[in-house]
Amino acid sequence: MDSHLEQSIIELKELLRLDERTDIQELLDYMRVQDIAHALMEVGEHDLGVVFNLLEPGRKADVFSYLETPHQMRLLEASPRDDARFILSEMDADDLTGLLQTLDPETLRAYLRLLPFRAIRRALKQLNYPEDSAGRVMSPDVVAVDPDWSLRRALAFIRRNADEHSNNVIFVVDQDRVLLAAVPIRHFLRAASDRPVRELLSDADPITIGVSESAVEAARKIQHYDLETLPVVGETGELLGVITVDDVMDVLEAESTEDFHKIGAVGTLPLSPQDASPFLLYRKRVGWLLGLVAFNTIGALMISQYEEAIEALVVLVFFLPLIVDSGGNAGAQSATLMVRALATGEVTSRDWLRLWGKELGVAVGIGVTMGLAVSVLGLWRGGADIALLVAIAMTLIVAFASMVGMLLPFILNRMKLDPATASVPLITAIADLGGIMIYFSLAVALLGLATP
Amino acid sequence: MDSHLEQSIIELKELLRLDERTDIQELLDYMRVQDIAHALMEVGEHDLGVVFNLLEPGRKADVFSYLETPHQMRLLEASPRDDARFILSEMDADDLTGLLQTLDPETLRAYLRLLPFRAIRRALKQLNYPEDSAGRVMSPDVVAVDPDWSLRRALAFIRRNADEHSNNVIFVVDQDRVLLAAVPIRHFLRAASDRPVRELLSDADPITIGVSESAVEAARKIQHYDLETLPVVGETGELLGVITVDDVMDVLEAESTEDFHKIGAVGTLPLSPQDASPFLLYRKRVGWLLGLVAFNTIGALMISQYEEAIEALVVLVFFLPLIVDSGGNAGAQSATLMVRALATGEVTSRDWLRLWGKELGVAVGIGVTMGLAVSVLGLWRGGADIALLVAIAMTLIVAFASMVGMLLPFILNRMKLDPATASVPLITAIADLGGIMIYFSLAVALLGLATP
């Protein structure tokens, strides 16, 4: 965080403690709305309302839309009906939808009742698009001009109607509101103002996203084509809204966070660990952990098949976690590399065969290195036989686990599941199973332990 | 990937196979430069040069700057000197710096020699800023206007001098080039054109980033304040360049990828796994794995202290991986949650105490659940004594590992190290050590195994 902002937050907390309301107001006047929102989420629940009510009315809706949902809810619940109505009706449509989509049906109805009819209709329409779709994150307030207007008329129209956020690009639509082009406003400035808009249109179709396509896909398009705004269209190509690059940064960050949590075997968490309740955190974690216990039980049952061998040669236990864990670690590396590369699009599902060959080479190289390292330990703890056993076992297990870690994300992707479901703990559990099987069957075969 | 683009790539490969150069040219004419770059990275090394040479000269530099560095290098190496000179001198300054900073000193000198003197000086200046700093990713080509000019004069100046990318905001500087304001171009359009620029300036200081600050910090500022462009300034506030939101998306994505790789215990990989050589992949992975072997050896040595106990009660081995792995998994969850929350700024290092209390509660809850689950297995495999042992051990180990997973990222952060260094395999290794110690000392204490 910015040290300047950090300073302001400390000052704000101090003024709250002293209850110096005039000074708080003065401090707020000098802060930007995003910083105020950030500060509000740092002060306690009670102070949140105190500070918010000290804001100039004109800044309230702006600050409000930069708050995280739980803080927005807390404020609305504590506000008198008229204040809540004012804030909700002043919010940008996309921010409002972002809030409304998290509510349970009853609260949603209560909040909708506070809004004017037009806003209700618009919000319901947007909530009707699929979750995480382009339609949900777009701003539906988009102005567009007619190709037969003069540039002067078009610019004047834009100046009158467009809001702050969306007029670096001017959208041109036909009579059925089908999008014809997205022209950068600077092109308007360069041409003579009595020429028709039509002359600025190029042959190329505008880059668009369908309203039901995923918001992540929209983000990837904006990133791939270096766009500032991406028009959202319906089935017949009609302009329905616009997604801007700042919306998209949040979408991509949320997507990365989701993958990050998945790779650590945490369920999708809609809130930061700071804001999530202990029970939510418990719920999102315990399922995976119990599932993995079931998985590990299979491994334990395998080990129990070899109890005789272990009793005959207890030093085998010494190397068990060492070798099995190394497999898990190597598999974890392969899986994280692949999951991320698939997520960013650096690698697509068609690349699996080429990568598989490369991964096999890398894995064998790593396996041999690790095998040599562990064979030194083997010599020390158990002599030449054990050294040979652990070296071979390590090589095979590392190679096996790397293959699993590499291929599982591709298999999940092919099955239309999220590759990040190949979490490190899951890969580790699979690698453990394979490792136990490889290690003990090798031990039995090489050391003749089955026939004591 | 877009299905339309995928189709074009298949068509391109087919035309390359048939060597239909005229058709390839026609296909390229209809493709956008970003799509051509994407397609070029999908065709083989030989075809890369073939297709690139079929491009109109005017599009070559544009397509080139969207290629990943290894592909850029391959093209430059295969190009005649004059072609290479042409491409390099047509590139935007920030893209050129992005390429040059990856070169070894000798290649760098060779390429610099191809450039005009002004470009060399500019490139060297930019390469002088610290790695991953705002100065490295900024575009130094930034035009600015004088506060005393009329709006008409300022707009005309911008139209003549600014390139495509950077004129949604107009920068206003004083005589020493100190930045006074960043005014959205739409404000210029709204005011009468004979008024001085000065009238559009507000009291608030413009949001800027220092040239030596990190590019990630710049990205966070752009994200936090919803900016399209962020001016980069020197020590006295002089305007040195500009960072745009599209540069920043790549910075954030690279940062997420780095964290992702670290959490899977892979070293920082400057390339996608697709482009990285097998040896580079080997090198980035084997170090961590060997380090973890050393760590696991300590665990193995601990186990060997309990060989007598194991020989007396071999069923202990059955539960060992089950319990120890569960600790690792719970720790992995805590670590991924914290690493990501610290990276996105949802959580700061000052929050550790509050989160620690919450985590302890969650961890004990999870531990008890897991303990109950595993005690059923314990009853089945070894009776009431074993059930009690594994239930208590599981609870303690899960709670211990969760604490480690939660706290280690904060400790690393406090030590100015990257929290993501608390990788899942590292947490697992630490959890294993603790788990082995807790499990066997509990076994000895509860079951009286030390005195057989």
Number of domains of chain A: 3
Query: Please, what is the CATH homologous superfamily of the largest domain in chain A?
Result: SLC41 divalent cation transporters, integral membrane domain
Using the coordinates shown, work out and report the CATH topology of the largest domain in chain A.
Tetracycline Repressor, domain 2
SS elements, strand count of chain A:
6
Biggest sheet of chain A: strands side by side, in what order? 1-2-3
Low-confidence stretches of chain A: none
Broad structural category of chain A: mainly alpha
Number of helices of chain A: 21
Note down, in words, how this protein is organized:
- The structure is a homodimer of 452-residue chains.
- By secondary structure, chain A is mainly alpha-helical.
- Chain A folds into three domains: 3-128, MgtE N-terminal domain-like (MgtE N-terminal fold), CATH 1.25.60.10; 144-245, CBS-domain (Roll), CATH 3.10.580.10; 278-447, SLC41 divalent cation transporters, integral membrane domain (Tetracycline Repressor, domain 2).
- Chain A has 21 helices and six strands.
- Chain A has a three-stranded mixed beta sheet with strand order 1-2-3. A three-stranded mixed beta sheet of chain A has the order 4-5-6.
- In chain A, α4 (45-54) packs across α6.
- The model of chain A has no long low-confidence stretch (mean pLDDT 86).
- Chains A and B meet through α13, α14, α15, α16 and α17 of A and α13, α14, α15, α16 and α17 of B.
